[in-house]
## 1
Amino acid sequence: MRKVYPDAAAALAGVLRDGMTIHSGGFGLCGIPSLLIEAIRESGVRDLTVVSNNAGIDGVGLGLLLETRQIRKMISSYVGENATFAKQYLAGELEIEFNPQGTLAERIRAGGAGIPAFYTKTGVGTAVAEGKPTAEFDGHTYVMERGIVADLAIVHAWKGDTEGNLIYRRTARNFNPMMATAAKVTVAQVEHLVEPGEIDPDIIITPGVFVKRMIQCPPGFEKRIEQRTVRKRAEPANEGAAAGGSEPVAAA
């Protein structure tokens, strides 16, 4: 089965449709499938329900789909850092289903594992639990949460082979592995594409059986940083003082 496609538009051809539910990996801008998101924008599909920890930032990541109003509903944990998101929500133009972060992760994992629902204490007695069934276990109240299976999952991986086996790099792993298992079709973008057998089976995180289509990120692919934080540069040593002199040494 041919899994590698020449570009994001080709990889998503015949998969996208109005009103579908999409898992979108990433956390902030870390590990987001940006090329696939851009292709979804160009396709023009609308009324999407997007499951993602958050909605990127204005003009980047899922923020692109908010700008074009292609997203009808977000199922998310955190929705800060995006003024467009806030504006549409407050204007009643965007539906939001808030989830505690661990609950969201488990809902996706459960969907991939074939578990239709589970119980958790998180959210009991809050707005999160409104309208949801509850039950008592060992004297404690738990709220029932449903697993989520999407029509499409788009994920970003650091390395993959042409059979679809994927590994992720550090924190870019985040929601990507669980989302890859919890959709009818999973499409991956990978930074480094290798031949089968070049990835040690012991370090494969997402087995290729879950991945239907994939693309390789082009040379110069840019990974955006949400908030760049750096250390303050240290003051240069006084060469004159270091040599025992009383006056600073003039620059050459």
Note: The longest helix spans residues 101-112.
## 2
Amino acid sequence: MDRLLGALALMLVIEGLMPFISPAAWRQVFSRVLAMTDGQIRFVGLSSMAAGLLMLYLFWS
């Protein structure tokens, strides 16, 4: 459980870096995401999950 909470905390820190460092670029990224179709957003989400699972497998096995 400690590792899960640590991973969640690290994810929140990393997710907060871009809006903190460059709010204008963060806004542009979200305007581009709003222009994407549902299928494109799903593909990005699936790719992100697959990359995360691959990283977990490589680092913890």
Note: The two ends are 18 Å apart (CA to CA).
